[in-house]
Amino acid sequence: MSSKSIKRVQEALKAKGYDPGEADGIWGRQSIAALRKFQAATGLEVDGIFGPLSRAKLLGADAPEPAADDPEGLVWFEQALSLVGTKEKPGPGNSNPVILGFAKGLNIDYKDDDIPWCGLFVAHCIGATLPEEPLPRGPLWARGWLGFGKKTDPRLGAVLVFWRGSPKGDQGHVGFYHGEDDDAYHVLGGNQSNMVNKTRIAKNRLLEARWPTTAASLHSNTVQTATGDVGLSHNEQ
């Protein structure tokens, strides 16, 4: 959701007696807690996710449906979008405190953004927005995300796990599905050219797509995207 949409939801929750805190357009833990109470009181699945059923109950049947490429309800993906442009700081011992903060918030021992952080980025986006979702053991290891959630088809917001080096090796990369063209998935991820951005990764490198178990009620679609003049990524760092 956009900040404006989140604020509308927060105001609607407050009007019905469920306190999300300040209606500031930021979807945080207090907003999630308020939504969960509303869901419990109205007979909805209590998952803290603002999906289509919650939208209809809270805002009414006339609430507009999101577009196919709108990440409404995919709060982990919205968190990822908000961090686009976050960069490493060059040089040993000179890490970006925002990236180190991803680890601190999850009690992960991580002290230098020279260490690959694509898995850390995905862990932060999910851990900050889906507090009851189990993270994989060793979330810094990209291929460890093959054990996350449940298997799904590639679609908006899904976690995509790719091989690097060799399909049978142990190196990998992990990020979020943003779209696709005929040859590649468009991946929103961290540690892509040392920053959070969107890049194209060949479809034949995909190992699996995974979906959060606590977001099982949410659905999304594939998104066809033009290639533009962006080349394929071959070794995400």
Automatic annotation (TrEMBL):
InterPro entries, per the entry: CHP02594 (IPR013423), Peptidoglycan-bd-like (IPR002477), PGBD-like_sf (IPR036365), PGBDSf (IPR036366)
Domain Peptidoglycan binding-like: 3-57
One protein family per Pfam: PG_binding_1
Domain of life according to the entry: Bacteria
Protein name in the entry: Uncharacterized protein (TIGR02594 family)
Organism whose genome encodes this protein: Ancylobacter vacuolatus
UniProt lineage: Bacteria, Pseudomonadati, Pseudomonadota, Alphaproteobacteria, Hyphomicrobiales
